[in-house]
Amino acid sequence: MTLIKKILKYALNIGLILVITFFTLHVIFKGQELTEIIRDLRMAEPFWIAVGIVTALLFVSGESVIIHYMLRVLNQKISFLKCLKYSFVGFFFSYITPSSTGGQPVQMYHMKKDKINIGYSTLIMLLITIAYKAVLVLMGLGFLIFNSDVVAKYATDMKWLIVLGFALNLSFIAALILIFLKPIWARALGIKVVGLLTKIRILKRRNKEKYTEKLIGICDTYAMGADYIKKNLSVVFKVFLLTAVQRLLLFSVTWIVYRAYGLEGTRYIDIITIQIMIAVAVEMLPLPGAVGISEGCFLLAFTEIFGIGLVKPAMLISRGLTFYLVLFVGGFVTLADRIISLKKEKRN
Question: Which pTM was predicted?
Fold first, then answer.
């Protein structure tokens, strides 16, 4: 894909996010005056909003800690500042592509520019992907079992989305396990699936060879990752632990917004439980940033907790911090890095 085509593709994705956001907010706030919405937003305490901003940025930085740790384990001397760049650029592209598929290839490209071996960057991104998905599923199942009353009370209206989310995430993890344990089987099964999808014209027949080659490459990469994981279980455990902390930072933002409005009565663990269920429900859906569906789930699950008068501004602030703030900062870092790179190329 040429550079211009890539730029157009990402521009269209950003445009899609803006359009969906506009229509979502139009439906949610239909009949309300702008001054009324602004008044409700200003009711939130600035101190807690500042805490929310820091927490959202720490969430992104959490991935930087993992990348930096893995690079040190692999004897790659890269500054933490560059790891921060990888994370913010990665989250920006993840948020503007369906099912968050665009972030990691861009991160690997930036690592390659910094002369990091492609095998190392592939392994790091692979381990981060596995940990990110597995930690969500483990958290989801744990909180579903041990805090089932809260899930039943607040998340009943989106139970089928949660079921679908668990099914998609568990299918993804099951595929990883198959690749880990039986890479040859996984490759053969994948080739058959590609053949079937091209036969029934879900995939273009002329691209069958390209899809097959890509699938073989993915299987080989995951097989390499499986070998590393088997030999370095202590490293993997630390990555999972860091990922759990990172995830909790993101899920805590809603509780911070709850405190920003001076509300009490709902436990921190209950708000975290609901937010994890929303994440399980929406993260695997093929929508850039899960825009629209995330806002809808927030309103369904948190109306009783925030109250009918505050749930909408709370949703705006929560999504503003966890999605749009990260998108903006990531976009700024991406643009700044591109400008700096162009200036260097011009000087050379």
Answer: 0.82
